[in-house]
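Q: My labmate handed me this sequence with no annotations at all. I'd like to see what the chain might look like in three dimensions before we decide whether it's worth expressing. Could you predict it?
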Amino acid sequence: MITLDPERIAAEARATISARGVAAHPERAVINSGEVLPDDLFVGLPGQWRNGGEFAEQAIEAGAWGVLVSLDDAERLGADAGAWVLASNNPLRSFQRLARGWRRELGCKVVGVTGSSGKTTVKDIARAILPARVHASVGNLNTEIGLPMTILAAEPETEVMVLEMGMRGRGQISELCDIAEPDVAAITNVGPVHLELLGTIDAIAEAKAEILGGLGRRGRAVVPAAAEALSPHLHDSLLTFTFGAGGEVHALDVELVEDGIAALVSTPHGERRFVFPFAEEYNLANALCAIAIGIALDLPVEDALAEMAERAQAIEFSELRGESVELRRGIVLINDTYNANPLSMRAALDHLGSLEPAADGRRVVVLGEMRELGPDSVAYHREVGAHARELGLGPIFGIGGGARDYAPDQWFADIDEAIEPIAVGLHPRDIVLLKASRSVALEQLTDALADWHGMER
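A: Here is what I predict for the chain of 457 residues:
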């Protein structure tokens, strides 16, 4: 529940009340009128094809606490709308201002997480291990719309908020920081993502580093020890915690255990053994980032490190991120179809290379194209394909235009074309990695293969 009275909500949003309702507080904020539940605040945002304010009446009929709409839409609704009507000359900006006002009202610690890859996973791990009442982004609500929705969904008792921050160009992280006002800024890594828009790795680092500029005077940074591109953006007055090899938070004595990885984690607060419910080495780096966030927060717990270690077994990842799907005949799909870039591709291939199929099973690679890589896209695809072959993986299947450049054993123009040949060609006990940029929607192939071969019961 957003425990602000209507006058305060209007003031924070810099909107005017043009109609009055009954309920004192809204439960949450939504932007889809079809999802409105009783006592929700419906925000009518301008869209590419339709103005969300056109659906304000539908939201009110569904029992909305009220609506936040444009001046024209508010005038159309009239003073007898039957719910609170907040009128704004810029509903999106008012939505964002309201979220900032709720963040300030909560007074909790806020963590912003960005990076070229791994930010959703770091958020998931932090949500699980931080010894506090944590509210975090659902899935990847990390945009100028998704982030304020996440903030406004936080309950009054929230102690720590972990917010994922996406970036597609300069200024976007700054915009999100203006809403969230983070106390801790975490950058998971810097790699060749969005090169089509920003041009160089240094430009990407500069855009990611906007999150550091969004910190207040007492803000703290969490960055990878190996990210040299971030060095120009760090300074002595910024309290910084590094993670990974050579960092202040790093792993010792790493070993595979049943259903996961165990590691002795060294931190400025001492050492502690963690057992994680995942086997991927790249996720160990994400876990170290999350642990460093816990150290940076300096939570009021007698032994926060011990608490984080105890909670590590409860880690659960968002969908499509390394999910293991067991099919009949011992076939295992690694469904890592949420996104892909050269960094995450190599990491996923390295993990597949570390696995040993049973009996005569193979390590099969199904790769969709990586997008937004700029003029060097062909070279990046070639390097990924070469890396897969160096690891002894195969056969390699490519799907989509850019996937030709992996030099795959077999190439398909689209998913529909790929389903039957790949399904028929799988052998018993194969381990199959599926990975691509999100826009390829490669999870459709995962679902098709599961339907074809049947799920293990």
